[in-house]
C-alpha cells in the first residue's frame, strides 16, 4: 500500500516588499534652557509710575476746588475799585479778600486801602485785607450829662447803637459820665457808642447798735453791699458794733460797707481797725407807726431820734399808708438808726421815678421834685460835716425808685 505524501506548503517571502531591516539608533536631545524673563510688565509699571508722578505734580501746582496750591501769585491793585470788583479780581488770583468797613472820604463801597500792597508776591490762598469806605457816615452826638434813656434814644435817632456800662461816679444815678467815640467823631451808621453811666451815690446809713439782719437790710435798701465780720465784743451777740464807711457819708452805689458784728464774747469791746464803734451809744424804743401816713410816720420817727427808709409795696390800703415797719415797734435800737417803712402804693395808683436830689441845695431839690409831680416834706438833721449845711443828705423814698404820682418825698436837709 502506497502511502501518499501530503504536499508541503511553502511560503514565499517577498523580500522586496519587506524592505531592508530596520536599525534603531539612539539620538541625543540636549536639555531645555530656562525661559528668558519677560521685561514688558516692568517697563509698563515704570511707565505708570512716571505718568502718576506727572499728574500729581500737575494737580499740586493748580487751584484744586477750594484748596489753594503753594504757587506764588501777584497781588493785584484794587484800591479805588468798588468792593464787588475788587473781590472778583482777588478771587481770580486765588486770594482770599478780608473786608473791613471804615469811614473815609472815598465814595461808599469803595476800596481805599489794601494789605499786602499791589505787586506783592504771596502764596495762593493768602488773605488780602481791604478797607472799604462805609456806606454812610454820621457825627456822634454829645450825650454826656444826659439820662441813660435819653442818651440811647438820641444815639438811635442818629443811626447808632449803644452799649451801657455802670460805673462809680459822683453824678446822679443813670447819668452818662463818658462816651466813646467822643462827640463830633464821624463814624459809620450802625456803629456802637459805649456809654459809661453813673451808678449814683448813696448815703451810708448808721447801723451801729442794730441787729446784723436789720443792718444788712438797711444797707441794701440804700443801694449798698454789706460785708459782715464777726468780732468779739461786750454787746449782745449779733449786734453791729462798728461800720466803715462812717454814717452819712456819700459813696457810689453798690459800694461795700463793712460791719463788725459782735460774737457776744468779752473781748475788749467793739473797737476794730478802720471802723467806728459806739459801745456806749444811747438806745431808744421804736415807736409804732403802722397805719399812719408816710409823712406823719417819718416825723414821729424823727422825733424819737430815728431815721426812716421808705419802700412802696402793692397793697389794698390807701396810698401812702404805712403797712409794716422794721424793726418792729417796741424794739430797742441805737439812737439815729433807720427804721424801714413799707408804704402802700394804693390799689390803682400810677407811679413815677423819684429824681435823685441828694447833694443838691434845698431849693433846687424842692423844685426838681415838684417838677416831677411830687410833693415835698423837709426834715432838718444835723450834718456830720459843716460844709453839708443846707444840702440834701437823704431822701425817702430814695432817688431812682418808683412812687405814686403826687405822693410826698421827704428830704433830710443838713443844718447846724
In short:
The chain has 416 residues and is an alpha+beta fold. The protein is built from seven helices and 26 strands.
Average pLDDT works out at 80
Instruction: Give the proportion of residues in helices.
Output: 10-25%
- C-alpha-based Rg, rounded: 51 Å
Give start-end ranges of low-pLDDT stretches. 13-18, 63-69, 266-280
State which percent range the strand residues make up: 25-35%
How is the biggest beta sheet arranged?
4 strands, mixed
User: How many β-strand stretches?
Assistant: 26
Shape: elongated
N-to-C CA distance: 208 Å
Widest sheet: strand order? 12-15-13-16
Secondary-structure class? alpha+beta
Number of helical runs? 7
What does this protein look like?
The protein is elongated, with a radius of gyration of 51 Å. It has helices at 15-18, 40-60, 83-92, 148-157, 212-221, 294-303, 362-371; strands at residues 72-74, 96-102, 111-115, 121-123, 127-133, 137-139, 161-167, 176-180, 186-188, 192-198, 201-203, 225-231, 240-244, 250-252, 256-262, 276-277, 283-285, 307-313, 322-326, 332-334, 338-344, 351-353, 375-381, 392-396, 402-404, 408-414. Residues 13-18, 63-69 and 266-280 have low confidence and may be disordered. It has 416 residues and is an alpha+beta fold. The strands form ten sheets. A four-stranded mixed β-sheet has the order 12-15-13-16, covered by helices on one side. A three-stranded mixed β-sheet has the order 2-5-3, with helices on one face. It has a three-stranded mixed β-sheet with strand order 7-10-8, covered by helices on one side.
Amino acid at each position: 500500500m502506497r502511502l501518499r505524501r501530503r504536499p508541503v506548503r511553502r511560503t514565499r517571502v517577498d523580500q522586496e516588499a519587506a524592505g531592508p531591516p530596520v536599525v534603531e539608533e539612539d539620538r541625543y536631545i540636549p536639555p531645555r534652557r530656562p525661559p528668558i524673563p519677560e521685561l514688558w510688565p516692568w517697563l509698563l509699571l515704570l511707565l505708570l509710575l512716571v505718568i502718576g508722578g506727572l499728574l500729581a505734580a500737575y494737580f499740586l501746582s493748580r487751584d484744586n476746588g477750594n484748596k489753594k496750591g503753594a504757587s506764588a501769585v501777584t497781588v493785584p491793585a484794587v484800591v479805588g475799585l468798588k468792593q464787588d470788583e475788587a473781590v472778583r479780581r482777588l478771587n481770580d488770583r486765588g486770594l482770599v479778600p478780608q473786608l473791613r468797613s471804615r469811614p473815609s472820604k472815598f465814595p461808599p463801597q469803595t476800596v481805599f486801602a489794601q494789605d499786602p500792597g499791589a505787586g506783592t508776591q504771596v502764596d495762593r490762598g493768602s488773605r488780602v485785607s481791604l478797607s472799604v469806605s462805609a456806606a454812610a457816615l454820621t457825627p456822634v452826638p454829645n450825650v454826656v450829662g444826659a439820662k441813660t434813656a435819653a442818651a440811647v434814644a438820641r444815639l438811635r435817632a442818629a443811626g447808632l447803637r449803644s452799649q451801657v456800662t455802670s460805673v462809680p461816679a459822683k453824678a446822679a444815678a443813670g447819668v452818662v459820665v463818658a462816651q466813646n467815640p467822643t462827640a463830633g467823631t464821624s463814624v459809620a451808621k450802625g456803629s456802637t457808642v459805649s456809654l459809661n453811666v453813673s451808678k449814683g451815690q448813696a448815703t451810708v446809713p448808721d447801723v451801729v447798735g442794730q441787729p446784723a439782719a436789720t443792718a444788712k437790710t438797711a444797707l441794701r435798701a440804700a443801694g449798698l453791699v454789706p460785708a459782715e465780720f464777726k468780732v468779739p465784743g461786750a454787746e449782745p451777740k449779733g449786734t453791729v458794733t462798728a461800720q466803715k464807711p462812717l454814717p452819712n457819708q456819700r459813696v457810689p452805689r453798690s459800694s461795700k460797707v463793712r460791719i463788725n458784728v459782735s460774737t457776744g464774747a468779752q473781748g475788749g469791746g467793739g473797737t476794730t481797725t478802720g471802723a467806728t464803734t459806739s459801745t456806749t451809744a444811747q438806745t431808744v424804743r421804736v415807736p409804732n407807726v403802722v397805719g399812719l401816713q408816710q409823712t406823719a410816720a417819718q416825723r414821729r420817727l424823727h422825733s424819737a431820734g430815728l431815721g426812716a427808709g421808705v419802700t412802696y409795696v402793692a397793697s389794698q390800703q390807701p396810698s401812702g399808708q404805712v403797712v409794716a415797719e422794721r424793726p418792729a415797734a417796741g424794739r430797742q435800737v441805737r439812737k439815729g438808726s433807720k427804721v424801714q417803712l413799707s408804704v402802700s402804693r394804693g390799689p390803682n395808683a400810677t407811679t413815677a421815678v423819684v429824681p435823685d436830689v441828694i447833694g443838691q441845695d434845698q431849693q433846687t431839690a424842692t423844685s426838681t421834685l415838684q417838677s416831677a409831680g411830687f410833693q415835698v416834706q423837709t426834715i432838718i438833721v444835723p450834718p456830720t460835716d459843716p460844709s453839708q449845711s443846707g444840702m440834701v443828705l437823704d431822701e425817702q423814698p430814695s432817688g431812682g425808685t418808683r412812687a405814686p404820682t403826687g405822693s410826698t418825698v421827704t428830704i433830710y436837709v443838713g443844718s447846724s
